[in-house]
Amino acid sequence: MNTLKVQITINTVTNPRNILTTAWAGMLAVLLAMLLIDPLQHAMAGQYEALTHTLQHDPGTLGLRVLIGMLCANTLMQVGIQMFGGPAWRSFVLVITALYGLFFLIHQVVHVAGGEALGLHTVLDVTHHLLAVAGVMAAHQWRKALD
């Protein structure tokens, strides 16, 4: 009888700096999708008044400003990871990557606790969380490579 064996291994040969940059790029793509999903869904249904109400609630004026700051920081982080590599910078990147991931995890928990139904946002949130975990693991490997 033939049996199928599946083995999952983490690639240890690939440069953690590249994995880290890719994780940040993926989180940026997911963030952009999160910003677009509500307007697209409401517009496709012709629910423009509901869209206005939804956007006033989440992200709201302050939230929109925070998101714009996060978009800029995310993009600059990708370039910074490729340009700089000193010990302090690597430690900073590890901490910021973890905090960035935790921010989105807490944000999702607040939505779920508030009764938000599972849907397309959930898929994006889980994808973002997985990318954040991969980013933290890569940032840790990149930081540890100095020791």
Q: Would you kindly provide a written description of the structure presented here, covering whatever features stand out?
A:
The structure is a single chain. With 147 residues, this protein is mainly α. The protein contains five helices and no strands. Helix 1 packs antiparallel against helix 5 (120-144) and helix 4 packs antiparallel against helix 5 (120-144). The radius of gyration is 18 Å and the shape is globular. The termini are far apart. 16% of the residues are buried.
Give a quick rundown of the structure.
78% of the residues lie in helices and 0% in strands.
Write the layout of secondary structure elements.
Blueprint: H1 16-44, H2 48-57, H3 60-83, H4 87-113, H5 120-144
Helix pairs in contact: 1-2, 1-3, 1-5, 4-5
Radius of gyration: 18 Å
Q: Look at the helices and sheets and give the structural class.
A: mainly alpha
Task: Give me the count of strands.
Answer: 0
Can you give the mean pLDDT? Answer: 91
Name the shape in a single word. Answer: globular
Low-confidence stretches: none
Taking the alpha carbons of the first and last residues, their distance comes to 48 Å
Output the helix-strand order.
Answer: HHHHH
- Helicity, as a percent range: over 70%
Largest sheet data: none
Task: Give the DSSP E fraction (strand runs of 2 or more residues).
Answer: under 5%
Number of helices: 5
